């Protein structure tokens, strides 16, 4: 199996987008609260054996001792690994979250704040500053959801568990090499429950292969509040994987961007819905996360941050007979009636379903938790 930067987290960048307002699918991989270790004799025995294997691979005893001082078994990590939800969002829902009004606005703000740095990164690596900003926005909500789980504990727990033991052990060894190189310290090496780290959510092996010290301080620090090294590392990752300088990712068929190069393909992931002409850089974005939805999400968010508009073609009504605008209206009306949907992004997730159920119950209706044209009309829509 080809191991990409995000093989370990799986899905259509679901971890990057979970927990958004209407979807409300729970904590993101980059926003899990601090977990607590618990005693586990089997884990301790596994770690004792692993230390010998790590030493045989060139990890110093000092590094091993520092890394595992305070590390331990995290049962919540196993629970999350065993119970990853199956994301079956439509492309329309995915894009509604990936390029939400809030994410676009925040992206423009962060682009202005870090414009000089992002422009320097673009000049060096040839990757559009809008693309880099969009990746930052999808991966960690512009650094606000970097994750605070101790990576050594998380990876050693997953490696001990054994479901994907060899993969996670390789990531654990890579994490020890990062510590041995002096790029960060065990207490600062935090990330998701699955070991993805920093502003741009690199797994340890990808960090070793692609992370860069853009600030020149001698450390490739993707964890710091200053996102410079992380943003440059994302650009370096794309550049090393074949990014074509000056070329768009693609665009909606009929747009100027779609006519700017010879497309590799014309795709229509959802019918009805927009058709896209995609170029080489679309394939490079899929090296970051092997999903058409993810690549389209990054590309569209980047275009919106750059000042572009929404897609021209409509996705049409959903299976419940509601358009995206209808679903947003439904969420707004429910919230105004005192049934909080967590936002109005048009994505009917668990929080919106709970709000619908609560309203139906209060109104003496059959409780289905599902949106409908009739429900929207009852709410005055």
Q: Which residue ranges are poorly predicted, with pLDDT under 50 across at least 5 consecutive positions?
A: 6-16, 18-33
Number of helices: 17
Shape: globular
Give me the count of strands: 5
Mean pLDDT: 92
Instruction: Kindly estimate the percentage of residues that lie in beta strands according to DSSP.
Output: under 5%
Order of helices and strands: HHHHHHHHEHHEHHEEEHHHHH
Classify the secondary structure makeup into a structural class.
Answer: mainly alpha
Distance between the termini: 50 Å
Radius of gyration over all CA atoms, rounded: 22 Å
Helix content: 40-55%
Can you summarize the main beta sheet? 3 strands, antiparallel
Output the strand order for the largest sheet: 3-5-4
Write up what this structure looks like.
- This protein has 381 residues and is mainly α.
- The protein has 17 helices and five strands.
- It has helices at 14-17, 41-56, 61-68, 75-82, 91-98, 101-113, 115-125, 129-140, 151-161, 165-181, 204-210, 228-240, 280-288, 292-305, 324-336, 350-362, 373-378; strands at 149-150, 190-191, 250-252, 265-267, 276-278.
- The strands form two sheets. Strands 3-5-4 form a three-stranded antiparallel beta sheet. Strands 1-2 form a two-stranded antiparallel sheet.
- Strand 4 (265-267) and strand 5 form a beta hairpin.
- It is globular, with a radius of gyration of 22 Å.
- 50% of the residues are buried.
